[in-house]
């Protein structure tokens, strides 16, 4: 056998071995089970829940988080005594709107209906909306709504004495982070809102 034929045959053998090796790798790779890694979220360190009294002059008073700040509502539709409870470190905001009923039963019914409609607008994205009632220490009944899913507002409520005062609140986050990763923060602020309702008092003469 000539030298040229020997070299050609050697190259063919090497090529065949390479192909067989590649094929074996492909088979092994196909048989290897793939286990997806669980979705990871950034760790959120939450502060201790402590409270402070509302000092601004409004027809209502309550205790709110020591880690939050009170800011007046600066939107174009804002009315007197509309405020925001802002959590700078958490990107959370509880919007509060207030109405003086002045004994107007029709206004009360309209406000309750509007509050329910605003909550209902989230039904497109929410896969669950749970409603509950909280009786406050002063005897008022607060209706609270917990929304689950990728909704812009995860917790809403309204509370009234049925004759003069009507207060509505909604929790929002100024971030695009998914609600799954915000779950600890949502629970943190929800507890603050329940504390707000339990310490809510209407100011006499206002």
Automatic annotation (TrEMBL):
<keyword id="KW-0732">Signal</keyword>
<protein>
    <submittedName>
        <fullName>Gliding motility lipoprotein GldD</fullName>
    </submittedName>
</protein>
<feature type="signal peptide">
    <location>
        <begin position="1"/>
        <end position="26"/>
    </location>
</feature>
<keyword id="KW-0449">Lipoprotein</keyword>
<dbReference type="InterPro" id="IPR019850">
    <property type="entry name" value="GldD-like"/>
</dbReference>
<dbReference type="Pfam" id="PF25593">
    <property type="entry name" value="GldD_lipo"/>
</dbReference>
């Amino acid at each position: 056998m000539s030298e040229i034929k020997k070299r050609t045959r050697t190259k063919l053998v090497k090529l065949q071995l390479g192909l067989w090796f590649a094929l074996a790798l492909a088979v092994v790779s196909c048989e290897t089970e793939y286990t997806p890694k669980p979705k990871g979220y950034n760790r959120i360190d939450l502060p201790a829940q402590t409270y402070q009294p509302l000092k601004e002059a409004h027809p209502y008073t309550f205790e709110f988080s020591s880690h939050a700040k009170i800011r007046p509502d600066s939107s174009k539709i804002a009315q007197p005594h509309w405020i925001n409870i802002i959590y700078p470190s958490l990107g959370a905001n509880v919007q509060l709107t207030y109405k003086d009923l002045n004994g107007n039963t029709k206004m009360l019914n309209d406000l309750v209906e509007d509050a329910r409609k605003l909550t209902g607008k989230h039904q497109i994205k929410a896969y669950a909306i749970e409603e509950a009632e909280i009786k406050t220490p002063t005897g008022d009944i607060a209706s609270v709504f917990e929304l689950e899913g990728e909704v812009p507002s995860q917790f809403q409520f309204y509370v009234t004495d049925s004759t003069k005062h009507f207060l509505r609140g909604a929790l929002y986050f100024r971030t695009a982070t998914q609600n799954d990763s915000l779950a600890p923060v949502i629970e943190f602020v929800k507890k603050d809102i329940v504390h707000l309702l339990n310490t809510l008092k209407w100011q006499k003469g206002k």
